[in-house]
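hi! just following up on the protien thing from before. the input was this:
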Amino acid sequence: MQAIDRGNWVLLMNCHLAASWMSDLEKIVKDIPPDRVHHSFRLWLTTTPTPSFPASILQAGVKITNEPPKGIRGSLLRSFKQIDQTIFDSRVASTHTPASKGLITPTSAHSNSSSTSFYGTPNNVSSNNLQTSRSNLTSRNLTPLSTPHSVSGTINSSNSLVPVLALDKKIQPSIVNTLVYPKLVFGLCFFHALAQERSKFGPLGTNVPFKSSESDLAISLRQLETFVLFPEDGKDLTEDEVFDIPGIETLKYMVGECNYGGRVTDRWDVRVLRHTLEGVCSRKILQSNYKFSESGVYYAPEPTNYQGYLNYIKQLPLNDPPEVFGLHENADITQAMADTASFFDIIMAMQPKYQTIIGSTGDDIVMTRASEIIDLLPAQFAIDTNTITNVNLDLNSSYANSSMESILLSEMLRYNNLLTVIKNSLGEIQNAVKGLIPMNVDLERLRGEIISSQVPSLWMPHSYPTLKPLQSYIQDLCQRLTFIKNWKQNGQPKVFWIGGFFTPRNFITGVLQSYSRKYSVPIDTLRIAASVLDKETSHKLSEWEENQTAVNPMQSKIDQGTFYIKGLFMEGARWDDEENLLVESKPKELYTSLPYIAVSPQQDSNRTLSSTIDPNNANNNTFFTSYMYTC
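and the predicted 3d structure came back as:
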């Protein structure tokens, strides 16, 4: 209230981190007396997009967003426009006055004694502070990159010391400046653009989306100056020695493993990040006529001045082809479909909650669809949680004592829980529409989602992951329940529909446990081996699956612990039945089905009971990870 009376400014940062306090904030803003507010008073709030932020504050305030530009062209323009043109041109000049190392600019560019960062503004700090910092580095057994004759430093925006190393003798690394430096600067900016834009392709781009910031690029450019720009002891290089600069490998490690790689949690995303960095910021970029893409549109221009690089960037296409990311042309279709779905989700969220649709009110639609769903869903599975004698097992099967019956019990329990949630919620919404019970927030949200044919968010904590609309979701659920019902009544299926499992990983665990119990082998020493069946074998297996009286052509392998699965689909590649290998997808063919797959446990000599299997360890060659789409 003091700020309101005195006309001060109030800044509340990172409101998304205090979601529980947002309701109090909304009340505080609502209760501000208009006649008491000083004309200079301002309330600033910062937050990331979050549902917990009060909509009333958004509607009453002025919104300012800061988002990275879309597309490689926009990202490159933004990165280069943050670079000081004078410093860049002085770096690539043919002659130099006493040059500096790190963040110090040539004295010819700035007559004062202040230091200027490549991404920053002039700052001064005493050399004693920097010397203390270097002493601390040495005390931690960290060897300085070089031993300069004089040192200085800067203070960054967070008031932390940024070492700046300067040489007091004149050096003129003309080859490095005119050839290596501008190309590597462009390569780092291009890599930054790729890292930002790759996530727009969804799972095709990254397994786990991550965000990179301008500070990642800024520190990478500073490291470029430290590791590459100035050779050791100020020695100039010949054209032949340029390609053997050891600092390039150091720069790649710092950028790929620390600056950007430190934000990546998935080991396969780390592998893609390294490969991308190798393609656009390595010794390859120093070669003449080296292209970033097969079409030749994207490349590092021959060394020129600052304006020359801007001119090249401005003529790049607005829409980025997938080839520059190393992706198939179908990825562009996937991205467009995702953008369209997101756009329509926003439109549906903006629709009024109470409206008449083709002569029917929203309540009529809710009542009709709720009744249809309840009629379609079967009854729950009858389960005795103490025993599962009601499960029909094939006693003559070699897997009568396997753990697959436990997997079946687990699946039935999960589906029973989901059926209970769906039927209870639909019954409650019907009673609320009739006026028998009050309409609360959850039921109001359920009502809107049923009208818009979305899977209710009330069901998702109890459901398997899905991207389907409501009608398709119910049909898929009925198919899954039929699969589990047939397994319960007719015994273990000949071929498992992997998409019918609530949690497919449990099936893999059951396969390992079955083999372990049958052959008395420690499960920790087993791994899963999967092989795609050829066209002829898949045809025989399909005939056996459809004909109950046919002779099983795979009986010997089944007796040895092999299971057969179906229902896997691929995105980004397809299976060639003739060559029996993965090949590129056909144009406009986004998803392709896989043939039958044989899954069998195998003993791994590299595994021991005491070994620790870490799925996030890139050096662990014994861990088996599979990514698959089920339907």
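Residues 404-434 form the longest helix (31 residues).
DSSP finds 20 helices and 15 strands in the chain.
cheers
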